[in-house]
Specification:
315 residues; alpha/beta; Aspartate Aminotransferase, domain 2; Aspartate Aminotransferase, domain 1; 2 domains; four-stranded antiparallel sheet; 38% helix; 19% strand
């Protein structure tokens, strides 16, 4: 896979196009990245299926009561992020999967934001597909992983065609290899796969310690930012990865990012490829600070000091 985006598109196209029909429902959540919205919208238009959206609470959690209420016999696909890239919310993925499977739905989990932050036990989650991107796990860009149940992958037709994914080619017809090879048309990103493997070999043994350190940074940063006058944190779920989205009264997120950049602090600003979520909260976007195991408490202090200075400049 070139990343989680291609993996989700593959499932939507190869599983969805084959199995969805008019009247079926695809259940998403308001927390989704565009890459886990648009492929389902397109396949819904092609098949006559309908996209249904689970709302989120003011704190940025999936409304589980609403989620349960939306599940029904027409629900054929449930696709959701393990962790919100915009808010850092950790979704109860195993519980959501269990509820979805109870109505017979196929479950896809976008694991981009979880794979690097804590250990993921895919069999324990019980999902049918799990996708993540290499650059989120400190590997190269342009490569990722799609895990799928073998029985589902074997029943899915390919949607890209070319060399190496074929068993036999004849002008009278072509037969394809079994999964996963049937989904790997053309020359694969060999160097990217090797580099991703090295990155995972580095990250996986330190995940527990890294997660604990990141949670320390998150707690410290949350306390410091909450003390800044006029700063509002967007997304305060009790279980989060080390991500804080926020706004400052009187300041546009892009201005906040520019002022922090002048102090040598890099954050992300904008809608974070989550425009429906921003619309849900009545926002054009947020500023977002993200922490990893290589960050320090001193850097948290520098962020807070720089934000206080930025707030005064924008007042």
């Amino acid at each position: 896979m070139r990343g989680a985006t291609e993996g989700i598109n593959l499932v939507a196209e190869c599983w969805g196009r084959t199995n969805l029909k008019a009247g079926d429902e695809i259940l998403l959540t308001h927390l989704e990245h565009h890459a886990n919205i648009v492929p389902w919208q397109v396949i819904a238009e092609r098949t006559g299926a309908k996209v249904v959206v689970t709302p989120v609470t003011p704190r940025g959690e999936v409304d589980l009561v609403a989620f349960k209420g939306l599940l029904n016999a027409r629900t054929k696909v449930v696709a959701f992020a393990h962790v919100s890239n915009a808010l850092g919310t950790v979704n109860p993925a195993a519980e959501m999967t269990r509820l979805a499977k109870a109505v017979g739905a196929v479950v896809l989990i976008d694991g981009c934001q979880s794979a690097a932050h804590f250990k993921v036990d895919v069999p324990a989650l019980g999902c049918d597909f799990y996708a993540f991107s290499g650059h989120k796990t400190f590997g190269p860009t342009g490569i990722g992983v799609l895990w799928g149940r073998p029985e589902l992958l074997d029943a899915m037709p390919p949607y890209q065609f070319g060399g190496d994914m074929i068993r036999k080619v004849d002008f009278a017809g072509t037969t394809f290899r079994e999964a996963p090879e049937r989904f790997e048309a053309g020359t694969p990103d060999i160097s990217g796969a090797i580099a991703l493997g090295v990155a995972l070999e580095y990250v996986m043994p330190i995940q527990a310690a890294a997660h604990a350190h990141e949670q320390t940074l998150l707690a410290a940063a949350t306390e410091r930012l909450q003390a800044i006058k006029g700063l509002t944190i967007v997304g305060e779920a009790p279980e989060k990865v080390a991500v804080i989205s926020f706004n400052i009264d009187g300041g546009h997120p892009h201005d906040i990012g520019t002022l922090l950049d002048a102090d040598g602090i890099a954050i992300r600003t904008g809608h974070h490829c989550c425009m429906p979520l921003m619309k849900h909260y009545g926002l054009s976007g947020t500023a977002r600070a993200s922490f990893a195991f290589y960050n320090t408490l001193e850097e948290v202090d520098r962020l807070a000091v720089s934000l206080e200075k930025a707030r005064k400049m924008m007042a």
